[in-house]
Amino acid sequence: MSAPGTVDRYRVVPAAYVVLLRTGDDGVDSALLQLRAGTGFMDGHWACGAAGHVEAGESVLAAAVREAREELGVRVGEGDLLPLTAMHRTQRTGLAVDERVDFFFACRRWAGEPLLQEAKAADLRWVRLDDLDSLAEPVVPHERHVLTALSVGAVPAVTTFGFPQG
Predict the structure, then answer these.
(1) Residue ranges of the alpha helices (H) in 5-73?
(2) Which of 25, 40, 73, 161 could form a disulfide with 89 if both were Cys (CB 3.0 to 4.6 A apart)?
(3) How far is residue 88 CA from its own chain's centroid?
(4) H or E, element range at 57
(5) Maximum distance among all Cα pairs of the chain, rounded to whole angstroms
(6) Is the pTM value of this prediction over 0.70?
């Protein structure tokens, strides 16, 4: 609790998300998703192919490039990362660890074949953005929010998730 007249502030945890996209012969985009396993957060849910925390002293662009390399084994240039949205989200627990700022990037160009690189995923799959419901397992809710908006071409520059609707 702060002294009278001061404001309580929390620290947010920044993360970078890379949504690898490819367009099918039918003109519909698919995103590369991984099935989370052994992470302790949303295991058994589909998630963006590459994502993770921004490390101290690292830019969000450098974090996105690093995560794509570490999680998928692909090389992405910072110039190939197209900003989708910045998402401010909360789990409304009051804990700093549950206050997040996520930076989502689309990427249509990379070097190498995307393959699972870590034990934190059980599967890797291209999924049509208009067919997320075909998955047997759910998509991480805040990521599904972005992927659904992307499927209809309506991703706002800034998104909030988990806050009361005003």
Answers:
(1) 60-72
(2) 161
(3) 12
(4) none
(5) 62
(6) yes
